[in-house]
Amino acid sequence: MRVWPQKRWKQVLVVLVLVVVVLFVSFAAFAGLLMSGTLSREVVSEIEIINSEGNKNALVVYQPGFSSFPKDISYAFADGLASNGWRVEITTASTQTPSDVSKYKLIALAYPVYGGTVGTAIVSYIDRIGNFNGINTVGIACAGEDSGESIEPLMEKLQNANATFYDSLAVSNQNASAAIELAHQFASNLTP
Ligand SMILES: Cc1cc2nc3c(=O)[nH]c(=O)nc-3n(C[C@H](O)[C@H](O)[C@H](O)COP(=O)(O)O)c2cc1C
Predict the structure, then answer these.
(1) Each residue's pLDDT tens digit, 124-153
(2) CATH for 170
(3) pTM value?
(4) In which element (H, E) is residue 86 found?
């Protein structure tokens, strides 16, 4: 039995059908992950304090990914802040994360980018805070590409929650060690 047809129009038809099937399967898999909650990654964890002697409080909240990349970036960022005199609290985004954020001068929100969007655990956390009362915020997108596409929706969401969108960082896991170094350097330039 011949699998690949001889006629040109049949070849085009087979390719088209294959493309549609691949698109459909990818979309269904992504929707399935979304609906099952696998991509929301609301993980409860302790609050860790870095540089308890620091002179201003920063909070780093991250949504873990399937790999350690978003966590590694968040800790590099937290260490960078600490190296510049901040007292840093770091934890994951969940219902247990502090929603009274009045004591912080800076809040950094880090998340894995899935389907070009802001991590859903971070979105839920912003919703739980509701009003940031003008606190400076930094968004950190951890992506597969150098994907800044989720930053603008994040900025809009934070501004709607009365936060000051201070800065953002988009890093790619394609060169994880360079990204970790960049996150550290970026944070070490943020002055308390
Ligand atoms: C379901 C899924 C969707 C993804 N969508 C995107 C995307 O839209 N843009 C992108 O740059 N990377 C995308 N990625 C790659 C992740 O952003 C990348 O792996 C990043 O490091 C997230 O952290 P993790 O690998 O620990 O989950 C996607 C990964 C998965 C599993």
Answers:
(1) 999 999 999 999 999 999 999 866 889 999
(2) 3.40.50.360
(3) 0.85
(4) strand 86-92
